């Protein structure tokens, strides 16, 4: 089955926020932001903008009737800056005009008086200065001090991974329609309609009941429209409230890239200790998370780093500490993987380092330290069944890894101008929001008298196929075909208190709520059918749109059953609620069972490096992935391939660069490159067979984030290719592995290791 | 007034010539299937087809409508996704649906349109070529694997039904790829009225607009502009007794496929694969690349190595200026007010000489170079008689390394020469650190590009292992 939206997508008939018809007289809002990274705002000059033709008003913090606060976890971020600005691009005014172009031009005419304050852009510098978003957290188990004594090899190093722009092709946006009694209806490109609703209510000083948030689909999100979608909706709502006109705010690409948060850069120090056989006895790591200027979701993202610090390995003695560091960059935010990729990159770097020093093959080291069924993670959760070993061996066998290795060795022996590299990357990813209360969802099903069925949940469709999966769960449970089911837009008046569609849990939570609602509904309908047909209740089922007795179709179709049920005053509406069971975590001991289950997999990556120029290609990535009993293999395969390629981008091309004053240098698609068709490698995906998952809907597994981790394979394969060319040079762990880094490694080893080592970045010349 | 056909509808509009076609489509025509993604031609979400009547037949090219000035589509047929839709999904659409080659769907209409362009103009109809037609379309969701699966089967399945280009449209109507109204477009285009002439003084001259529409969109929408592409004289490539002459409004894609150009620039088609995307190459012009004066303009670097000269025109007066003397400083040109580039010419004695080009960029395709290099060598039995090495991205202007090039005369083509000369090149350049790389990277890249270009020009004499 293909996506239920596929046909309207290919016809260009799927509507995104900017496509939705708006009434005549609609106004357009454009934000104006700070030009300094950290300064006291002494005055905002809006006169020129107000006098610009077509401008209706310019709003600042003074125009906010409610609370000027958009923070969700920690209340530390204003919608519009008042006394102080904390990053370049931080919005402090909203220009509202009769056309988008007028508002954009007027926004450029807004200026401010700044008194500069010292700015910090580096996480370690922030840590030294005591600038933290929240107190540090440490997960520990075993006896580290004793363990070091038993180690034969102890290694330390620093690891850096860069930021990443989501680059959803649809930029952020929202339309606000003013309604009677101070209420407002919003169409908002948000992954988290309830967060948007809550913050808009707070900004306008009205109860949540007066704010309706509706969204049918997003043109890509990847975490970037979780908390980060809210300000634009709030600004539109504020302007609609002021003007009593419909207000549309769609960020242009420049503003989107400059004003919205991205993946957190991490800088980490590890210390790893192994015995003579390559068993990891001890591991210690400090994560310095660059959180940007406000909390956003940083503390939750750091949680996931702590949980995923060991990837798929079992290490008896560990201490893992995370620091969320406040800097003067736009608040970093959720991005597919949510802190796990940054942590996994560190342990995989440590293993690569260990392999290089001990001479034990990295794959041997990896496999020797896999977590086994029945073992306990460093945060206290016991893993009932580990698929780590099975995924790896299926991957190596099916894709004939030994032959690949031989081929690569041959190639490297015969070629001077190019070298190949291979890597194997096993993954383990925990599923559930680590903020336990978020693991809840509701579904609301209406059956109409013609037999058509509508389902509303809190899940937001952004291309990941959650609507299709929900329709499938509902159809299977009701015993009718998917075509009878319409998944309605996600709307806070139909389903309240929605958790964000995030953490890969969209289908798990909302699918389970849908399953429950469908089950209750069908049960009631079958009670009625049994009476109608005068047969025992236990003999009646619904299959393929027919009421069946002892599995034989009767003349009673779904449609006629519904028509009769209505006349007999049977309720045709069902709501259900689901909360993931058995989740618990004790923050005082930092132990518990935060995850419903774990996802496993393994990938082999092959790359070819041009040793003259440092240019490279990623030739292929071959994956075995554990999706449980996949709800839809085509959709899951698309998630695996898409997640992988985003991960490849993060590790190779995608380089967020800031200037010395904290200004974004890579702020357009001309300067920030994501994978294109030519860059994307040949991808093979196999599903791990016979791995049903009793802990999620219809034995499936969540699939959104884990495959992102496979992209890391490219870094280690490139490192192997570099070392094939320069065997004497040391390994280094600074991602992304841009063509600049590879050439510098090939030609000039001494310069490597530290990110942004070149202070001359401030000398920007336009080279476009 | 501008007159064109948008899908199946005749449009006459007085909107400004510099308005982006994307804005016209979305806000004036209310067709929202064409998406706005980046407004700089880098994502392809706004891809449309522009068809022109040439020798009695319609010829269609994909373009990014965000960079396309309205004046450019005078007399053309503009096709958006809405103009391809029929009651059922067409085979292109069906194939994308069947292979789940759409996720969030935002890039999908652009891909469908671009693939339709493939069926309209590909001579080979090979799946591999179909990839090139959508190389300018970024998809952030799929990782392209499902898109490739859809592409790999589609041309094969339809190949036998699709006739050569002149009869292509009727064949595509029969296979259902195009709606029936396409058959009437040629005759309707032939009847379209001319646009009003630009009357005001000092208009902005727009080549393809692919840089101006990014840098000065508001100016273009508000000021009088002249579309150079509409002047047929500027669109010619010809060979005279002494020169290959390239009109300044010749597009990069035309350059890529011209057999005469290939005699002066061996392998140019492959080199131009690395220059922007097909959608952009359909718009961007040689003259535009020259006057935009980017220090890393790929075309300029190639032209410098082949000793190009500019024919400059002021009213009726013409003068000749070697391209290497055209750049006075960063984005400063040796142009008088009102003067424009008419023709780029290459001396005939260049024809057939060994020539090579390479660039380094973060992404290999559709990316601006960090550093690029082009080399032209004249030699007699591997003794260099004349050489020109041009490098970009290492100075405020695109550079011909004159002194260095001259010092090569009399040298033997050998690994030693290449190693020495590429190191010496570093003394002749002044790169800066910017978003495209640090000073040190650009120095090394320059050195290594010179080596790799030589190596590829003379693979027998200069083997890879001698340079590593």
The main pleated sheet of chain A reads as: 8 strands, mixed
* Number of helical elements of chain A: 19
Report the average pLDDT across residues of chain A.
96
For the report, how would you describe the main beta sheet of chain B?
Answer: 5 strands, mixed
Outline the low-pLDDT stretches of chain B: none
End-to-end CA span of chain A:
45 Å
Walk me through this protein's architecture.
The complex is a heterodimer of chains A (768) and B (468). Chain A is an alpha+beta fold and 768 residues long. Chain A is built from 19 helices and 29 strands. Chain A is 28% helix and 25% strand. In chain A, strands 3-5-1-12-9-10-11-20 form an 8-stranded mixed sheet, sandwiched between helices. In chain A, helix 6 (193-204) packs across helix 7, helix 9 runs parallel beside helix 10 (340-358) and helix 14 (466-478) runs parallel beside helix 15 (506-533). Chain A starts with 5 loop residues before the first helix and ends in a 21-residue tail after the last helix. The model of chain B has no long low-confidence stretch (mean pLDDT 95). Chain B is globular and about 70 Å long. Helices cover 31% and strands 21% of the residues of chain B. With 468 residues, chain B is an alpha+beta fold.
